[in-house]
Amino acid sequence: MGGIGKTSLAHKIYIDKYIVHHFHIRAWLTVSQDYSVREILLGLLDSMKIQTDGRSEKRIDQLGELLYKKLKGRRYLFVIDDVWDIEAWDSVKRYFPEDKTGSRILLTTRLENVANYINSGSPLHHVRFLNDEESWKLFCQKVFGEGFCPLELEEIGKNIAQNCRGLPLAVVVIGGLLSKATKTPHYWRNIAKNLSSEINSNDEQCSKILSLSYKHLPHHLKGCFLYMGIFPEDFEIKVRELTKLWVAEGILKSACSKTLEDVGEEYFLDLVQRSLILAQKKGSNGKIKTCRIHDLLRDICVREAQKEKFFHVMEGSPCGIQVGTSMRRVSIHDKKNFVAFQFYYAAKGTLHRDDKTLSSFPVKIPFHSRPLKVLQMKGTHIFPDEMVELVNMRYLYCYNIHPQLYIASIYKLRNLQTIVCRWYCGKDMELPPEIWKMTQLRHVKLNGFVHLPDPPISEIKEGGNSIVVLENLQTLWTIYNFIWTVEVLERIPNLQKLAIRYGGMVAGWEEYCMNNLVCLTKLESLKCRLADTFPHFLASITFPTSLKKLTLDGMGFHFKDYLKLHPEELTILGKLPNLEVLKLKHCDFNELEWKPNEGEFPELKFLLLHDVNLKHWRADRIHYPGLERLVISITACRELNEIPSGFGEISTLQSIELIQLEDFEEISTVCDSIVESAKKIEEEQLSWGNDAFKLYITGW
Asked: CB burial class (10 A; 0-12, 13-18, 19+) of residue 404?
């Protein structure tokens, strides 16, 4: 049944270090009840980190052939999680080569007839319920962590754990509730009284237990939890995207000296600690990057949300869907046309689609939908003249859509807080100058070659002559060939994340005022992409001391341009006092050598090297005293022979990840030497007692 621990057990196997070492390729895919063969194949290719150009145009058999060729002759492990239908297996099994290489496919399912049909002869593993002792141990871990249960709560606690009837999901959810609540006998008896003891073997009875976790949530978290149901089943949710939606919806409580995004992060972590949200992936800074919600908990979200008229979920095409006047929020999941999900908030009337081709796929929204605050579109779009009428819009997300018509009139949405446009187009575009008057903007994330115009020379603000400052703006991503003058930086004083891209420049670095970036005293994340070869780039830019994350990308393979890094310039990076994450991509090390000085990189925790022309790397624990994660693309770093042996003495080191992106047979000897050096570091780390250290060799 749901929540018994099938996925958790499969995941424990999937990440086991011996499994990671043994298989050349590993991939994970969750198959929901409403699946398509295309989604399964694309999901497996994505999990293997295989890029598929023109994926929307490729036929199913072409995707299957690509998967077959990538697996042929390799030892692979696939985990296919939550299979509901034998047809899902029959539709893809022919794309898995049987080469007698020791490959394995591990499937989880709630349905024994599905398991028996798919099974190749090995005995099925029926995941059992926990016994009372195991339930009590798990309960205590969740409620008290490393601590112990007080004697006055022990009898009541054991009664609560027993009433969960051995279902791990119920134990951790109730445990998460009690870990945050007042630990008194009176409160615990109240929980025990309300806790259903009828759970035996079906999800409906289990939901009675899980519903308690929602009913006992603090009021400020209820809306955030219900909101999780707006995403499709088994959907991997980006945490930053989620918190931005919470902000736009106004369901977060403002707090002194904290941004709404900070409050949203606190609320999110609170829900994770209550086991209501499952952490999925972590980013380079150690924070949770993506998350999921268990199917049973999502069902509760959808049911409670519709009961309270918080939102409605609809399946199918948006064409002709009737939206009632009582529906404040509507989430439309259209998998048939590869539209992951769309949000239409506060819309009334009928949503119309005039053009049925996948390339344009416009949707017409009624004119009287002005109250609409949040619109998220993936693979579809609305008419531009309809969009400009949505004057109350707070959040706009467009995926795989050419936004030129939208960008030109975006300034009319004066209440807009977040705009995210992801598309693929080689043409230059320019934001309208009126963007400098959009004082509600918090996050601007754009793909492509987008220029930010100079602000108007003079403006008149109510109360006197002064410039308009975008005090709320925290993210600006990505701006092309922009000149960072003092006049610009004065208008964005609270910027935290910045991505800039330079290429085809007609002037020297001094013309772009890169030294002025030091004025951004709250900047924490900076990404620089350079499509031309620029000497002494690091010497031309002055970084603010607040910087925590830095990515330098020379564009490499496609543009044949590498960022030149000289020894004296690398010292500039080493002296950044708060730098925690450093990613170097497509970089050319002068003299093929990197030898940091003692005392540099005092706070560095994450280091990534991808396609760097580096041969001699001389470093040990005094150069990276706090390093936790090292990631190297070993097939792209063709000159590097080994990881410095001194890394074996870095006491904070948690993992080394070696990634082989493609089959480069001509450099296999180099890859072998890097792997051997990493294994020696692993041995030394374990000999020092660092049992938590992990060595990952992906695709090896």
From this structure: middle
Mean pLDDT of the chain: 82
Out of 129-138, 291-300, 551-560, give the one with best mean pLDDT.
Answer: 129-138
Handedness of CA 619, 620, 626, 629 (dihedral sign): positive
Average pLDDT estimate for 447-475:
75
Strand ranges in 212-328 using DSSP code E only, listed in sequence order: 237-238, 278-282, 288-292, 312-315, 321-323
Cα torsion 483, 485, 487, 493: sign:
positive
Q: Model's pTM, two decimal places?
A: 0.79
Query: Mean of the pLDDT values across residues 101-113?
Result: 88
Domain residue ranges in the chain: 6-118, 132-215, 219-303, 311-401, 415-523, 526-700
- Per CATH, which fold does 219-303 belong to? Arc Repressor Mutant, subunit A (1.10.10)
Residue 151 has pLDDT above 90, yes or no: yes
Whether the per-residue pLDDT at 696 is higher than 70: the answer is: yes
Closest CA to 111 of 78, 81, 83: 83
Phi, psi of 300 (to 5 degrees): -65, -45
- φ, ψ for residue 465, nearest 5 deg: -85, 120
Element (H, E) at 364: strand 362-364
pLDDT greater than 70 at residue 339: no
CATH topology of domain 6-118: Rossmann fold (3.40.50)
Overall residue count recorded for the chain in this entry? 700
Confidence at 538, pLDDT banded by 50, 70, 90: confident
pLDDT at position 18 is: 86
81 contacts 55 by C-beta, under 8 angstroms:
no
Q: Taking the chain, what is the end-to-end CA distance rounded to the nearest angstrom?
A: 36
Topology agreement, domain 6-118 and domain 526-700: no
* Residue type at 554 in one-letter notation: G
Instruction: Name the 3-class secondary structure at 379.
Output: coil
DSSP string, 281-295: EE-TTSSEEEEE--H
Check the CA dihedral 208-210-211-217 and report its sign.
positive
